[in-house]
Design brief:
Maf protein; Dna Ligase, domain 1; 5-stranded mixed beta sheet; 4-stranded antiparallel beta sheet; 5 helices; 12 strands
């Protein structure tokens, strides 16, 4: 019986807990954590700014894991927490997991988007209720950070789960720095179970994609690579440029693609003429 594929996962935040089981179950691959300094690519707390975009960052981490481990296949994830583009008043987690296979010259990324994430942020004031803060931040199930409000952040404490720890850190930050003090969710995976769940869902999608062969060349990795936009209004026929007309499925190895139509017309509510 052949040994399973080994894959290096670049993480120092325990992401193997949710990524490794998906790859073992779907592909029979063994994911091994490689503790490179992923904070060097940027941190949620802002003390080390992210210089690349999310996709480029995930790919760079995956390559770094390969370099550090000598394993020719690498994984890494990168998350972005912020306003949902479809519903700006809701905070969402957009996770990307990159897969790099140097042996076969393959690089691909998979994403998963979810609003089911604890996303707490509070600027401390004289009116701050510590009991309410603990409730809204979901302590101690989730951890928080305490930081100053400078850009980039120059003072930060992470991984705080007890309200007494939070109060002590706030006092220390107020003593050491000037300006507002912010308490917010610590989004590092090992102390943010709601983000862990989003990463796990993304890993499942990626493992499924890697197990799906291209209908043309049979290489695993067949999946959605883009969308086609532009649909006529159902009432007046005006073209809605941003409406999604179909998904483009493609191969990571050959140039085979297939477009799967998703709709033929768009609702008048999304028409630039009927609803300008």
């Amino acid at each position: 019986m052949s040994s399973p594929h080994r894959v290096a996962l670049a993480t120092q935040h325990g992401k193997e807990v949710v990524i490794a089981p998906e790859f073992a179950q779907t592909l029979g691959w063994r994911v091994e954590a490689v503790a490179i300094d992923t904070d060097a690519y940027g941190t949620f707390s802002g003390d080390r700014p992210r210089e690349l975009g999310p996709e480029a960052t995930a790919l760079a981490k995956a390559r770094g894991g390969i370099d550090a481990s000598g394993i020719p296949r690498g994984l890494a994830s990168e998350g972005t927490i912020g306003p949902d583009p479809r519903m700006p008043l809701i905070t969402a987690d957009h996770e990307i997991i990159a897969y790099v296979d140097r042996e076969h010259g393959i690089e691909l990324t998979q994403w998963h988007h979810s609003a089911d994430v604890v996303a707490f942020s509070h600027t401390v004031s004289a009116e701050t209720s510590w009991e309410e803060l603990a409730r809204q931040a979901d302590l101690p199930q989730h951890a928080v950070i305490v930081r100053n409000d400078s850009q980039p952040v120059s003072w930060v404490r992470k991984g705080l789960r007890e309200i007494d720890e939070v109060r002590d850190a706030v006092r220390a930050c107020q003593h050491d720095t000037e300006g507002p003090v912010v308490v917010e969710t610590d989004y590092r995976a090992m102390v943010c179970p709601s983000r862990q769940a989003v990463i796990g869902a993304c890993a499942k999608k990626l493992a499924t994609r890697l197990s799906t062969p291209c209908p043309q060349c049979s290489t695993g990795g067949w999946g959605v690579v883009g969308v086609q936009r532009g649909l006529p209004c159902r009432e007046c026929g005006t073209l809605a440029q941003e409406a999604i007309a179909g998904e483009e499925w493609g191969c990571v190895s050959c140039d085979h693609t297939v477009v799967t139509p998703s709709a033929e017309t768009v609702d008048p509510a999304r028409c630039p003429r009927c609803n300008p």
